[in-house]
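Following up on my earlier thread - several people asked me to post the actual chain instead of describing it. Fair enough. Here it is, all 241 residues.
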Amino acid sequence: MTLRAIIFDVDGTLAETEEAHRTAFNRAFAEAGKPWSWSQDDYRALLTTTGGKERIARYLDEQGMAPDPALVAALHARKNALYADLVAEGAVVARPGVRRLIDDAHRHDIALAIATTTSASNLTVLLDHVIGRGAAVLFAAIVTGEMVAVKKPDPEAYELALVDLGLPASACVAIEDSRNGLDAARGAGLATLVTPSHYTHHEDFKGAALVRRDLDDGVTLDTVRDLAAVSRGMAVSRMSS
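Reply from S.P.:
Thanks for posting it. Predicted structure:
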């Protein structure tokens, strides 16, 4: 089927956001007087759990502390505010090729959508400062973490995006950066292009239709069109060096 929409993940895919998230978590912990500080290795392990509140709860559980829902929610809310400040200060930029592909898709009447498990507030500030103010209007469908009952690797976010687009999976391609995201997209029947991020480059992307370093690594709109016809069982492509 002809490509009719591209569905983007956000964190790690549209931009290398996770280091800003990690910094914001640590600042929120320090402000609250908590003696917790996540190293890059700590955070890489925690990223296998999707959702910021879920990561805090997991960390507390692993440290032998019963997660207090009110504390988790307060820390997460403060972390999101600190993250928004970092993004507004220019700490995060679009990954290579992202803006080009978005522009090319619009010129050729290919719809754009977002399927993320980040919060709506995080998404808005990221789009405004990384893609352009008011950039949310470029996307025909947006699904955020507040809209799903179960986060990635569950396919619900992608399934909702397909419903909002009014399109079958065979007419769309997902772009992801993580194993959890790949599993979610494939679970919804989507051929998936993976561009591993700083925190996910070590993961196994078996089952991806294509793996590239980033969207400037030989990825054009024609490349994505070709993936729309790829079966879910296609072998993973060799990543560019």
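Confidence is low (pLDDT under 50) at residues 231-241. That should answer part of your original question.
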